[in-house]
Design goal:
446 residues; alpha/beta; four-stranded mixed beta sheet; 14 strands; 42% helix
């Protein structure tokens, strides 16, 4: 047996020994849900863990194991599990009835709070997921401009509807999406201003909008180069092309989102995840003159937008409770915790003689097994997948619940002591993988 096979077997065997009940649950579930998970990201080999419940900064498996949760539902949770204020809001809301199919005070309160905090929001509308939010943001842009084409960034993630999932790139899964969907979708690399300028100039007469994350979230927490967002804003404004910021993932870094942090204000914005307090939500909105396309009082034929659960009252209550306590002080504290985590990780890399990367902004970090500073989605794809797989399983064995691609998401309930313990667990894992890195991945050594 090679060293590589020996390390893989040791980690996998330890995982299966620690989570046998999860295996039983998985084997029952695959009889009814193909693949054993109803969300593609939830599956990993040899089988995913099954969570019984969560409390605070931890989740608990059916085996009774307590795991430090740095997935936080892929960013949808910011105050930990079972936050008492959110639980109280949900209980109070659901006791009054679940949904009324009418406007509600809860919609007013959450909409007002979002418009007061986020610079790009004059008016908003509610949907039930980030995917729906970007879908309707694009529909709004096309209806307002009477143009069809949309430009996006390679590595950006805007949900799973056909329009944004369609791509000619090999790094996204496009099975089942009609080839024709790429006809009106343009794509340029993130942080490549020259490519963006060329694409806009060549398509300006047909281009409705540029949609982008202020930084690539699911694409590796890749931050914008200095001045990049300002250049994008000026270029779109000069060419009468709408700019859409997808802040579904990035909103948590500032009470006003990245647009407030970088002082670059788009025409339309989408938010979600933390905005729902852990419940399903999506929000799209923007400048008053654009959003008035939905207004019955201002147009004879408003843009049609419906959905049975839009503005679901219990979600409105949960979202308001979550954001009310996610104020400037809370954001400052959680971002400091992220800085503390980053400092500890970088020290661990140095101590272990590793030249690998950790991209961080606020409470979001992504570890990359790459030996160069990452500014593009293409560099993220170079990260060694096998090392991510082994690190993920190894950390689960050590009581840390992570996202397999090396993404760590913090919550306000966490402490510096817990973050220090997390760094120690990652350090132990890196030491466990070091012999393999030296043998097979020596380009990652200092």
């Amino acid at each position: 047996m090679t060293l590589e096979q020996e390390i893989e077997k040791t980690i996998a065997d330890a995982y299966m020994a620690k989570f046998p009940v999860s295996r039983e649950h998985h084997e029952k579930l695959i009889n009814y849900i193909p693949g054993g998970a109803t969300r593609s990201l939830s599956y990993f080999k040899p089988y995913p863990i099954h969570i019984d419940y969560g409390q605070g900064a931890y989740v608990y498996t059916h085996e009774g194991h307590k795991l430090f949760d740095v997935t936080n539902a892929y960013g949808a949770i910011v105050h930990g599990h079972g936050d008492p204020d959110i639980v109280k809001a949900v209980q109070k809301g659901i006791a009054k009835g679940s949904q009324y199919s009418t406007p509600t005070d809860g919609q007013y309160k959450l909409a007002k709070l979002l418009c007061e905090r986020i610079p790009g929001f004059d008016r908003v509308r509610f949907v039930n997921s980030g995917t729906e939010a970007t879908l309707f943001a694009l529909r709004t842009a096309r209806a307002y401009t009477n143009k069809d084409k949309i430009l996006k960034m390679t590595g950006g993630f805007h949900g799973t509807h056909d329009c944004v999932a369609a791509s000619t790139k090999k790094n996204v899964i496009t099975a089942g999406i009609p080839n024709g969907m790429t006809q009106d979708m343009l794509e340029v690399p993130f942080n490549d201003f020259d490519a963006l300028e060329k694409a806009i100039e060549e398509n300006v007469s047909e281009l409705a909008a540029v949609i982008m994350e202020p930084f690539l979230g699911a694409g590796g927490v890749v931050l914008p180069n200095l001045g990049y967002l300002e250049h994008v804003r000026k270029l779109t404004s000069d060419n009468n092309v709408l700019l859409i910021f997808d802040e579904i993932f990035s909103y948590r870094v500032h009470t006003g989102g990245c647009q407030a942090l970088y002082n670059v204000i788009p025409d339309l914005t989408t938010v979600g995840k933390v905005v729902g307090g852990g419940l399903p939500i999506g929000v799209f909105g923007g400048k008053k003159e654009i959003m008035n396309i939905f207004c019955h009082e201002r147009t004879d034929r408003p843009l049609y937008h419906s959905g049975t659960f839009n503005g679901y009252e219990t979600v409105m209550q949960a979202g308001f409770a979550a954001l009310f306590k996610y104020d400037e002080k809370a954001v400052t504290n959680i971002n400091k915790l992220g800085d503390h985590f980053q400092k500890g990780l970088l020290e661990s890399f140095k101590t272990n003689g590793l030249n690998i990367q950790s991209n961080q902004i606020g409470s979001l970090l992504n570890l990359h097994f790459v030996n160069e500073t990452i500014t593009t989605a293409e560099q993220v794809l170079k990260s060694e997948e096998q090392l991510h797989t082994l690190m993920h399983l190894s950390l689960l064995n050590k009581g840390v619940f992570t996202i397999p691609r090396g993404l760590f998401i913090l919550s306000t309930i966490m402490t510096e002591q817990e973050i220090d313990n997390l760094v120690n667990k990652i350090d132990e894992t890196l030491k466990e993988l070091l012999p393999l890195i030296k043998e097979k991945y020596n380009h990652l050594l200092l």
